[in-house]
User: Fold these one by one.
Assistant:
Number 1:
Amino acid sequence: MNELPFRHVAIVVFGASGDLAKKMTYPALFSLMANNMLPKDRTHFIGAARSKYKMEDFHKKISSGIKQSSDQQVLSKFLEKCPYISLSAYDDGPSYQRLDSEIAKLESQSTGSGKNLRVYYIALPPSVFGDVSENLRKYAWHKEGINRIIVEKPYGKDYQSAKVLSNKLASLFTEEEVFRIDHYLGKDSVKSVLPLRFGANPFLSSTWSREHVQYVTVNFKEAFGAEGRGGYFDEFGIIRDVMQNHLMQWIILAGMERPNSLSVKDIHQAKLKFINDCRPVRPSDVIIGQYTASSKDPNKKAYKDDETVKKDSKASTFATAVLYIDNDRWRDVPFVIRCGKALDETRAELTLHYKTPPDSLFPSESGRTGTTFTIRDHPEKSHVLTATTKKPGRGFTVLNAPLSIDFSNPKYTDSYVPTAYEVLIYDAVRGDHTWFVPREEAEEAWRVWDDAIKNSESRNPLKYEYGSEGPKEEKDLLKQLGVEFE
Ligand code: NDP
Ligand code: BG6
C-alpha cells in the first residue's frame, strides 16, 4: 500500500515520554508500519520530549505499550525507525533547530522521490501547545516539503480559549496544515451512524426523528478511575474530557441532516449546521459527581486519595446532561448524555428509544414498547435493534427481542481492522481532513457547553462509590424526563 507520494515521511511525536504516546500513538504507528500502510524504507517515527533517555530505555518504554508485537523481528525493525530527541524545554529554539537537522539528515538519506512530509503529532498538555507551535513553525517547518500538525484534545478550555488557540494556530499555519484530532471520529462505531442512516435502511432513516423517537441516550461508563491523571482531571473534569468532544461528535453524526455528499466540505457543513442548532445546555440539566472509595475493594480508592489530586478538588468524574436541538427533526427530544469514571462497568453506546405508537395493539405493561436501536463501542462493537415480537407460546404475550450484529465475528470484518488512532494518523499522512475537526466546529462545540461547565465548577459534586452506578440523585433527573438507560 506504499502509494504515498513522498520522498520521506517523518512522524514526530511531541510528548513521546507521556501516557498517550505509550498507550496509543506508538502502538498505532507500529501497526501502520507492520500492516504496510507506510513506506517502510522511507518512514521514521521521531520521539521528542524533555525527559532524558538512553535510546535503549526509550525503546523499552514504547515497546511496553505495543501489545500486538508478537513478532520480535518486526518490532526490532520498527524500533530502528524510532529515534528520540531530548529537548531542553518546549520554548527552547536551539532544541528545535537540533530536531530540524536530525529530520533533515534522515530525509537526505532517503532514496524516494516526491516531497518530504513532516507530521508533527502534539501529544502534550494544552498549556504548551502555543510554545511548541511557534517554535515548530520557526525552526522545524520544511521549507519545500509538506508539513502537518496534529493537535490533541482538549481544544482549549472554553469558547474564548479555543478562539485564542485557533487564532494562534491560524497565525502560524494554514488550515490545511492543521489536524484537530478527536479519536472518536476514527471509530467505526461512531462513523457507522452515517451508512445506517443514509445508506439503504429505510426502516431506520424514516424513523430517525422526533415523530418516532422519544429520546436519545449516550451511555459512557468506565470501570476504572482517573488514577494518575489527577493533575489533568482537576483542571478539566469529565465534561471537557469526553462529553464536550468525543460524545458530542457521536451525537452530531447521529443528529445532523443528510450531507449533500460524503465530501469533506459537505460533511463538515452538515456537522456545523447541527451544532448551530444545539441549544446551550442549561446548568439545571446537569448532574455532576465525584467518586469516593469502594466499600468492598480497598484497591479502589477515592478520586481525592490519588496522590496527583488536590485534597480539596471539586473535579467531576461523573456527569449526566440533557441536550436539546432546536430544529424540526429533533425539537423537544432530550438527548441524555451520561459519562463517568469508576463505575460498575465499561460501556459506550448511543441508543435511540422509540415511542410506542398510540394505536399499538400490543402495548407493554410499562406503557412503552421498549423498542430501541443501539450502536455500541464498548464492551463489544455491535448494533442491537430490539423489536416487539410474539413470545412463542399460547396467547399474544409480546417481548422485546434483540436483533443484533456483533462485529467481533470475523465474518463481518477485514483481516486488518485499524484502531481509531491508526485510521486518523493515516488520514493525516494522506492529508484527508474529513474526520478531523475544523476550526469553527471546534469553537462552536464549546458554545453549547460553556455555561453548563462553568456552573458545574461552582458546585460541589455529588458523591458516588467506586464501582457503583453513579450518584443516586441522577435517578431524579431521569425520572423527571421519563428516561431510562438500558
Ligand atoms: P502526559 O501528562 O503524559 O504528558 C505528556 C508529556 O508532556 C509528558 O511525558 C511530559 O514530557 C510533558 N509534560 C507533562 N506535563 C507538562 C507540563 N506541565 N509542561 C510541559 N510539559 C509537560 O499527557 P498525556 O500523554 O496523557 O496526554 C497528552 C495530550 O493528549 C493531552 O492533550 C491529552 O489531553 C491528550 N489525550 C490523552 C489521552 C490519554 O489517554 N492519555 C487520551 C486522549 C487525549 P517531558 O517532561 O518528557 O517533556
Ligand atoms: C480519552 C479520555 O480522550 O478518551 C479518557 O481522555 C477516556 O479519559 C478515553 O478514557 C476513552 O476512549 P475510548 O476509546 O477508550 O472510549
Note: The pocket of NDP (ligand 1) is lined by residues 15, 17-21, 23, 49-51, 90, 123-128, 152-154 (CB under 6 Å).
Number 2:
Amino acid sequence: QSAITDLKHALAANRVFPVYQPIVDLGDGRVVAAEALLRLHDDNGRLLSAADVAPAIIDPVLSHKVSNLMLERVFAEGADLLALYGPDCRIGINSSEADLRKGECLDQITRLAKNGNLAPRNLIVEVTETMLLTDDSGAICDCLTTLEAMGCKIALDDFGTGFSSLTHLRNFPIHTVKIDREFVSSIDEDHQARLIIQAIVQMARSLGLSVVAEGVENESQFNFLKSSGCSHAQGFFFAKPSLIPELTAMATQSR
Ligand code: G
Ligand code: G
Ligand code: MN
Ligand code: NA
C-alpha cells in the first residue's frame, strides 16, 4: 500500500497524531523544548512515522491537512505540555513549504492561540534549507518575519546536509540551527564529523544563534557536544519521541 493511501486513510479515520521529543539544555540538563513529530496508524494498526509516509507529506493537499491537524493537536495539548515543561517551554512544529508560502499558518496560529493554552512565544517553527531555496523565497521570508514578530522562534532543520549556504542565516530570521543527526552519529568514529560540528557551533555562537544537536544516542556523543559548546541536544539518549503521558511518567521518575 502506498504512503498516500496510508496517510489518506489515517486522516479520514482520525489515526494521525503527534508525539513529542524533548530538547535538553546542555548547560543545566533541563528540558526547554519538545519537537512535535507526526505518527499514524495504518489500516493494520501498525505505527508509522513521518519518514514512512514522506512522499505523501509533500503532496499539496495532504501536506495542508497534516499541517492543520498537527497544529490543532499541539494547541489542544498545549496546557499539558506547559504543565510538563513549564510556561516558557517551546514546542517545535515541522512546517511545509506550502504552509509558509501561502502564509496560512499565520492565521491558524493566531486563531488557535485564542484557546489560551499555548502562545506563539511557545512555538518553534522548523524549516529546512530546501524550503528557503525556492523561487518564492521572498514570500517565505515574509511569513517567517511575521512569525518572528508574533513571538515564534525559527529553527533551521537538518543543518549541514543541504546547501548550507551561510547566506540563509543572514537573509532569513533564523534563531536556531539543528545539526543533522548524520554528523552526530559519526562523532565517535569520524574526526571530520567532529570538526564540522565544532565549526557549526562556533559559527552559530558568533552569530548569536542557539544550536540543537539531533540524534544524540550515547554518553560520549553527549560529552563531546557539551565540551564543544553546543547549547542544546535531542535524541534517544535523553528520550524517544513519546506521548504526553509517557513523557510525564519519565519526568516524574527523574525528579
Ligand atoms: O519521526 P521521523 O523520523 O519519521 O521524522 C522524519 C522527518 O519527517 C522529520 O525529520 C521531519 O522533518 C518530518 N516530519 C515529522 N513530523 C512532521 C510534520 O508534522 N509535518 C511535516 N511537514 N514534516 C514532519
Ligand atoms: O529531521 P527531523 O529532524 O525533524 O528528525 C527527527 C526524527 O529523528 C524523528 O522522527 C525521530 O524519530 C528521529 N530521531 C530522534 N532522535 C533520534 C536518535 O537519537 N537516533 C535516531 N536514529 N533517530 C532519532
Ligand atoms: Mn525537525
Ligand atoms: Na533533522
Note: The longest strand covers residues 31-41.
Number 3:
Amino acid sequence: STTHSVDNHYVHGLDRQYVFHSWAQQGSLDPMVIAGAQGCRVWDYAGREYLDFSSQLVNTNIGHQHPKVISAIQAQAASLCTIAPAHANLARGEAAKRIIAKAPTGFSKVFFTNAGADANENAIRMARLFTGRTKILSAYRSYHGNTGSAIAATGDWRRVPNEYSSGHVHFFNPYLYRSEFWARDEDEECERALTHLRRVIECEGAKAVAAILLETIPGTAGVLLPPKAYLQGVRQLADEFGIVLILDEVMAGFGRTGRWFAFEHYDMAPDLIVFAKGVNSGYVPAGGVIISEPISRYFDDHFFVGGLTYSGHPLAMAAIVATLDAMEEEGIVENADEMGNGPLAKGLQQLAERHAVIGDWRGLGVFHALELVSDPVRKTPLPGAEVLKLKQQLMEQGLLVFTVENRIHVVPPCIVTAAEVEEGLAILNSVFESYAVPA
Ligand code: PLP
C-alpha cells in the first residue's frame, strides 16, 4: 500500500533505491522520469513534455500507445495470456504468417524469441547446426545484443569485458568517413572492405566459418550505410565459401529505413533475418529469426537444439499482428520513407552545411546520425562530455535524441509528422546555433 502521491520525486526515488540499471555505474545515475506517452511524445508527472526523436532505444517505430495495438493486447490478455511454445496458437501462427509475407520469397518459417540478443543467439545456433562449422565472422563496428554469443559477436567495446565464448572473429566493415582502408571514395572503400573480408575468411579457414553476421546498416555504431555493392559482395563471398549469411535487422528493420527490411535497398537477401524492436515496437518484448527455405528444410529431419519458455508468447504475438496490420493500413512504412527521406533528410543536410560541428551526416528513412567533431578537417571526435551537454540542451528545449560517443542519432518513430519534423529540426538548429566548440 502507498500513501505517497505519485510524482517525479517519488518515482525517481523508487528507482534509485531499488532498480539496478543496464550499462551503468549504479551510484551516479539520474534517470529521467516518464509518466506517460502518446505517438511521438513522452511526458513526466510535472507535465513536462518531450518530442521523442530517439524512439526510446530506436524501437517505438509505430509510436507510443497505438490504439489498435493496445486493444489487440487487451483482447489477447482476456482470452489467453500465456501458452507453452510446443502448442499451436492462433496469434503465433498469424504473426509468423504476416512476417513471412513481408520477407522476400524463399523464406518459410519464423522462430520467435524474447528480444534481439536471443534472436542473434539462435540464428548463430542455426547456422552452426546447418553448416557443421563453428566460427562466426562479424564486424567490429556492430552491436548484436548482450547474451553469450550475441555479445561475443558484437564488435564494439561492450564485447571486451564479456568475452567468454569462443569461435568469434571480427573484421572491419566499410565506413568511408573514418576509413580503415585508406580509401578515397565509396568504390574504393567497398572494394577494399570486400578484399579484407575475403582475406579474413581465407585466413580463418573457409571450411571453419559457419556464418557471416552483419547488421544490414550498423545502427548504434553510427548508422553506417554500406556502399551499394558491399552487401552484394558479401552475399557472393558467402555463396562462394558455403557460409550462411545472417543479417541483423533488429534496429534497421520493420520500417526504420522506409522499407520493411533495410536489405531491400541493396537488391540482395540473407539466409537468416534477425528481427526484434520494430516488429511490435516493444509493446510486449519479442524478437525472432526468419528462416530461408534450405535451412528450414534442413531442420525438417534434424533436431533443433534450442528453445525458450516464452517463444511466441501470445501477448507479444498479438502485438505483432496488430502492429504489422496497423503499419500496413496506415502506410506507416511509406510515411517513414516520405518524412525521413524528404523533410527530415533535407533539414539535417542543411544543419550539417550550417554548423561546422557536424562533421558528417548519414541516414536513410527515419534512421540518421550526425557525427560531431571539434575540428572538421582532422575529424576530431567531439568529446563525450560536450555531446552530453548538447543532449541536455536539446532536452531543455523538449527534444529527446539518441546519443552514442560523438554522435547524435536522429531516429524518430516512423509515424512522425511534417510538423513534428519541423519542430525537432528547429530545436536542433537552435541548440547548434548557440553552441561553441571549446577552444
Ligand atoms: N541487434 C541490434 C542491431 C541492436 O541494435 C540491438 C539492440 O540495440 C540488439 C541486436 C539487441 O537487442 P535486445 O536489446 O532486444 O536484446
Note: The CA atoms of residues 295 and 301 lie 11 Å apart.
